Amino acid sequence: MRRRNFLAALLASAPLKAAQRPVRAPSNLKITDVQVLVTNPEQAPMTNYVLVKITTSEPGLYGWGDATCTGSELAVAQMLEEHLKPALLGRNPMELESLWQTVYLLPYYRSGSVHMSAVSGIDMALWDIKGKVAGLPVYELLGGKVRKELLTYRSVGGRSFEEVEDGVRRLMERGYKVIKVQVAPPGAESGYAVPSSPRVEQATREAYEKGLPPAQVWEPEPYVRTLPRLLEHLRKRVGEEIGLLHDVHERITPSQAIVLAKAVEPYNLFFFEDPLRPEHLDTFRIIRQQASTPIAMGEIFVGIWEGLELITEHLIDYVRHDLAHVGGITAGKKIATLCEPYGILTAWHGPGNISPITHMANCHVSYAVPNFGIQEYSVDWKAGIDEVFSAKPVYRDGAITIGEAPGLGVDVNEAVARKRPYVRRMRPTIRRADETPWPY
Ligand code: MG
Q: N vs C: which end of the chain shows fewer Cβ within 10 Å?
């Protein structure tokens, strides 16, 4: 046997596992259905997931995407079923960029969180199909792994400095190298990512039972005074080695953001997240001129064009876009490429209120871009998640990894998911003490 024929015969007989065998993509491959499944595996607040399944004319070939937009879940489901699905039926799922542009331009009044979350879910499902056709994980299609594991962080919140310190120590013992720290200011009964007082907890439960948004009160001045003291406390107690970051969650004014970015400089934050609302982008220039604190922004942007000047004027250090809202893997890869010549790093949004499908998508992009910074995986999922989703990122010693399955590498148990339907658990309304509405 000639050498070439021998190699061909060897390759043809090499036993590939069934799940890894490439599916042939005929040129007339067609999308036959787009199904939307809204599920809440834990039947808990902030965990309604809007899942998209795109089925094709090739038997057994389908893709899953995540179109979750907490606060607008059912609007996204309707957007997909009524307003975008008809444009996908009968189209070739391999023409991913063309289909992305089609569903983006289709409504004419485009963009916005509902539309772009729907586009994101479609995009992820199409990448899943493309990976299964190729027999490769999506990160291979994006250029291949640039790193073997992904540096990650998670959050600690407390009602006192000591409570935060205890939480930081517990995570350090588990190997975390970077930790997000949040503390309730004196007198505050609630806050972003900190435990509420028993009174607010009780009122929140009652609001949930009635299907109403809970109410929280927030005053920015005590918070601005408290945060530098928390960081000073932690640096004295847990040292300089551990990476610390903090999320302002847009809860201060532009002038307070400048004061705070300067005040936290001595504590060497990994990054200072979302100091301002996206409506106040011009003020990032002033922060940049006055403070060296690294700044991260992007989780509520809904398109690669939003906040563009933060990148092109190098006003931030980390992009935090949410791949479930910004346009999926396609948009994430484009944003990372745009950031690369500016030295801006990625830190894709990774909270528990987006499904494991987006967390897997985050990892595929984070593996493959040269300018990776860190991957948030700030999740405290219970057992219900594993009954619905076949995979999620795996944490070990300060980093996360995913497997080598083709596509996104996560399947959905539809029967279980349908038994755990949507529950209305609204986000809280945030108000100042004088009742002025304030950002979440
Ligand atoms: Mg954030």
A: N
Three-class secondary structure of residue 261 per DSSP: helix
Label residue 111 left, alpha or beta by phi (over 0 means left) and psi (-120 to 50 means alpha). left
Of 238, 225, 289, the C-alpha closest to 268 is 238
Which residues make beta-bridge pairs with 407?
A: 137
Q: How far is the CA of 323 from the centre of ligand 1 (A)?
A: 14
How much distance in Å is there from the Cα of 142 to the middle of ligand 1? 26
Query: pLDDT of 179-210, one tens digit each?
Result: 999 999 988 998 888 889 999 999 999 999 99
- Residue 84: inside a domain, yes or no? yes
CATH number for the domain spanning 117: value is 3.30.390.10
Distances (CA, A) of 274 to 86, 173, 281: 37, 28, 11
Q: At what angle do helices 328-339 and 96-105 cross, to 10 degrees?
A: 100
Q: What is the pLDDT of residues 24-64, one digit of tens each?
A: 667 889 999 999 999 999 999 999 999 999 999 999 999 99
Same domain, 266 and 248: yes
Structural domain containing residue 59: 31-136
Instruction: Return the ∠ at Cα 116 (arms to 112 and 120), rounded to 5°.
Output: 165
Please report whether residue 386 resides in a domain.
yes
Q: Is 364 an active-site residue? A: no
